[in-house]
Specification:
The chain is an alpha/beta fold. The chain has 12 helices and 11 strands. Strands 6-7-9-8-10-11 form a 6-stranded antiparallel beta sheet, with helices on both faces. The chain has a 5-stranded parallel beta sheet with strand order 3-2-1-4-5, with helices on both faces.
Length: 339
Amino acid sequence: MHRKESLKRGTGIVLFSGGLDSMLAARLLMEQDIDVIGFHCLLPFVAPDADPTKLKPAKIAAGINLSLRFHRCGKEYLDIIRNPAHGYGKQANPCIDCHIYFIAKAAELMRELKADFVATGEVVGQRPMSQMKHTMNHIEKASGLQGYLLRPLSAKLLKPTIPEQANIVNRDMLLALNGRSRKAQLNLAQRYIITEYASPSGGCLFTDTFISGRVFDLIEHHREIDTTDFYLLTIGRHFRISEAAKLIVARNEIENSELEKYMHTADYFFMPGFKAPSIFIKGTLADGEIEIAGSMISRYGKRHSDPGAISVFQKGKFVNTIHPGASMTGDRLESMRIR
């Protein structure tokens, strides 16, 4: 509900990443005595069981006294990743479609709370794919927020929004930043005594070359995918043993425990009864491919004269035991590695 009893000038929803630009956008509006609510989208790379209030964006928001709402990106978002209307960037990053999706979700919250506008930390000309002026105009239209999408850091370079025209937001107190230089933002951070924020280049794993290869492999080979599949792209070594099956091999005890946590979602799960990595398998196994998993465990495990058995689970239920075979050769292993 809209906070009618408040003495604030209005209410704005700020798309909040935890980066400096979104923090500054929020502070510029808070400085105008506007009731600002942060909105953070949890990408599928975040663990399904993660408590969003314990994550870094929540801690950063608390540092500027910003209340934060969360949206966990689900199937609708995964469909966008599989087939982005505006295409990918250099890697698996569908930046324009992501922006439209995030802003449209913020718009839903705006309507739910009867807020006055949505704001972002975007800067005209900062990112070539999604922050050129004509693209920003297109995103505003496509997200259903024409006239109600405010970019405080570059507002004076853009047409006045409806909340500015209605004097809910004072346009004179907004900025006209342009381009990729961070000098103005860093100066503002000093003014607001902001010292902790997410790196502008360190966030989106869809732009990471290493992870992007795994993303494309996943969406090209598997029709049914979910957020757990995307989270597991960040864990272990990944191998494609056939068009129908991929293997995730844990690298350490922490990853073993994490894979075991989601073993009920695996089509097959191999758990050795000796010191060796667990293997999570997505897809179907043909004749002889169970032995491939066993030989990978031999490759990465510490074998003894009697190493013990490997328990095989299917959809979380125990089905069989196998014994590790000969260790897979390095050349064959590398030929299967997903890059």
